Amino acid sequence: MEPVNLAIIYYSATGTVHALAQAAAEGAEKAGAHVRLRKVAESAPAEAINANPAWTRHLQDTADITEAGHDDLTWADAILFGTPTRFGNPASQLRQFVETTGPLWYQGKLADKVYSAFTASNTAHGGQESTILALANTFYHWGGIIVPPGYTDPIQFQSGNPYGTSHVAGDGAPGEVALQAARYQASRVVDTAALLKAARAA
Ligand SMILES: Cc1cc2nc3c(=O)[nH]c(=O)nc-3n(C[C@H](O)[C@H](O)[C@H](O)COP(=O)(O)O)c2cc1C
To answer: Which mutation among 89, 92, 95, 121 tests ligand 1's pocket best, with the greatest number of atoms within 8 A of CB?
Structure first.
């Protein structure tokens, strides 16, 4: 059978979500998927970015990562979205990309794929679940198959978020527990998408 195509589409201002996205890519590749790691376009004004050295640096460091396009969505059997929490919601940069997908949605091209999401926030109760659940609202509209990590692996009892991998950025960069949770979440998404792909090919 053809390998699963997994698109990891994320936004990150200062690198936290990017680190989780990279770990997810590792987990998915290990699970046998073809992976496209894609950032969404930055839309914040230059003054805002330039006022934050970490934001400026991350933008430069990730300049070579390809921006997400509609082709990545149609190519994928499964899609993992990553976003920082912004007042308990996904970042507007990611929403801006999502809100260009009307024509694909209308043609049914976003249906029946596997979807899952991960996030970061500055504080432990800063809205990680609400951000992931807000993205899931869109997955319902698309007719997606939502695959959360739940507590289906021992790492989930350490990382502690059944909705999707999440990290408290205020504690520093993601450590091994969060990175392993991201790898696991991606592998679970790939395994589920592989079952569906095999059943559809049969
Ligand atoms: C406009 C704005 C809103 C934010 N809202 C929240 C929030 O509701 N809860 C929280 O814990 N952190 C909040 N943060 C902090 C970000 O979630 C945090 O910086 C981000 O997860 C870091 O991810 P990144 O390094 O990938 O950009 C906010 C940050 C900004 C700039």
So the answer is: 121
> How many domains, in total, are found in the chain?
1
pLDDT tens-digit series, residues 166-180: 999 999 999 999 999
| pTM, two decimal places | 0.98
Q: Quick one: which of 3, 71, 13, 76 has its CA closest to 39?
A: 13
Q: Could you tell me the distance, in angstroms and rounded to a whole number, from the CA of residue 174 to the centre of ligand 1?
A: 14
CB of 126 shorter than 6 A to ligand 1: yes
Q: Could you give the maximum distance between any two Cα atoms of the chain, in Å?
A: 55
Which residue's CA is the closest to the ligand 1 atom numbered 19?
A: 122
Can you tell me which atom of ligand 1 is nearest the CA of 20?
26
At 1 the pLDDT is 79
Residue 140 CB: number of other CB atoms within 10 A? 10
Q: Residue of the nearest CA to atom 8 in ligand 1?
A: 87
The range of the structural domain enclosing residue 14 comes to: 5-201
Cα 85 to Cα 69: distance, rounded to the nearest angstrom:
22
In tens, the pLDDT along 84-103 reads 999 999 999 999 999 999 99
Residue 181 CA to ligand 1 center (angstroms) comes to 20
Using the structure block, give the residue that is written with the tokens 């430069």: 60
The domain that holds 174 is classified in CATH as 3.40.50.360
